[in-house]
Design brief:
Strand content: 25-35%
Order of helices and strands: EEEEEH
Radius of gyration: 13 Å
Helix content: 10-25%
Strand order of the largest sheet: 4-3-2-1-5
Number of helices: 1
Length: about 80
Amino acid sequence: MTVEGLEPCMPEPGTFAVDGRDGRVGRVMGRVGPYVQLRPPGGGAEWDCPPEAVRPASPGLVLRARVTEINREGRLPS
């Protein structure tokens, strides 16, 4: 979603953002063509999100995503 007169949100790679189309939270991996690439917390397939649909993740969503990543790291073999 964009506010009239403002540029679409482009969070820094490595931060978390929300895909405003469906509410999914993902870590920003970068840009490919016109799209922002997001990856689910804890890993998985990246998906493309149009920049106008990207919005910053709230502190609560960031905390939840980080916990998911930490939990996943704890389950992986060393």
